[in-house]
Specification:
The chain has 286 residues and is α+β, with helices and mostly antiparallel strands. The protein has 7 helices and 18 strands. A hairpin with a 5-residue loop joins β3 and β4 (101-106). The longest helix is centred in the N-terminal third of the chain and has 14 residues, at 65-78. It is elongated, with a radius of gyration of 22 Å.
């Protein structure tokens, strides 16, 4: 809360839980921000974020194999009870001071959850944390994660602040015939990599070849989102582990106004502390 307030942000939650459950939970966890009860899920429905997975449990589409597997996982985590009805897809809205939605961060499934630090980083609000600096012949790179500790289902962001050396450019998506800068995450049984988020590129004109290609010449930041899997199978595999390490490479090809250099792959790694999920149910207060 102090970090959010320092950035000029407030915080409130909205859920379909009744007030007595929210009161008990806030006391149990020492929560001081507003927790609002959406009776009958009316607001959830108006915002179009009603979680229909719960509705499919008794519906005809449950016979679909892919959906049935999703439902099986969902039930194993949440529990097969009538209180699923009315639950929202997990997500976050960021509002301006007049109450208008400026951005939204939502998940398609109950298990995956954006961390607040990841949301702030992707919204351009979060301040960079201490990172790892790497120098190459062509670039200065600083990489840092939005979070140092992960719980199963957490969706977090790896940032890469890239500063090309003077006169150097690297290639952006859409550059044909060159290695586009990107992050290659090694396969990991418990971590899933999502598509890379690229900033807008500049167009570089190379007159000898009559070539116009998208490049990065000025400092820029790449954002790579990852998810620590929260399925029962992944949770079982993580049980007893205090740390998890992810490895990968930053791949690119650099050129100046005269020479294109060989493609490069810079090895990188990140180690995260593994946090357990909070699974206890609220204790009702008298």
């Amino acid at each position: 809360m102090k970090d959010l307030q320092a950035k000029g942000l407030g915080l409130a939650t909205i859920s379909y839980d009744p007030p007595e459950i929210l009161t008990a939970f806030s006391r149990q966890r020492g929560i001081t921000f507003p927790m609002l009860s959406d009776v009958g899920s009316e607001t959830i429905k108006r915002y179009g974020i009603l979680n229909t997975v719960a509705m499919e449990l008794a519906g005809p589409n449950a016979k679909d194999p892919a959906l049935a597997e999703d439902i099986k996982t969902y039930v194993s985590v949440v529990g097969p009870n009538a209180r699923m009805a009315g639950i929202a897809f997990p997500g976050t809205f960021i509002l301006d001071r007049s109450g208008r939605v400026k951005s939204r961060f939502f998940e398609d499934f109950y298990i995956d959850r954006n961390t607040s630090s990841s949301i702030l980083m992707r919204a351009g609000i979060g301040a960079p944390v201490t990172g790892t600096k790497v120098s190459t012949e062509h670039l200065e790179v600083t990489t840092y994660p939005s979070d140092s500790a992960l719980a199963p289902g957490n969706r977090v962001t790896l940032a890469f602040d890239v500063v090309p050396h003077r006169g150097i450019h690297v290639y952006a998506p859409g550059a044909s015939g060159y290695r586009v800068i990107g992050v290659n995450i090694e396969s990991h049984a418990q971590i899933r990599a999502l598509p890379m988020k690229y900033p807008p590129a500049q167009i570089y004109s190379f007159k000898p070849l009559n070539e116009r290609v998208p490049v990065y010449q000025k400092p820029f930041t790449l954002l790579q989102e990852i998810v620590l899997e929260g399925t029962p199978q992944a949770q079982a595999a993580l049980r007893g582990k205090d740390m998890v390490t992810l490895k990968g490479t930053l791949d690119y090809q650099a050129c100046d106004d005269k020479v294109c250099f060989n493609p490069e792959s810079v090895p990188l790694s990140w180690t995260f502390t593994v946090r357990p999920l909070v699974l206890e149910r609220p204790i009702r207060q008298p």
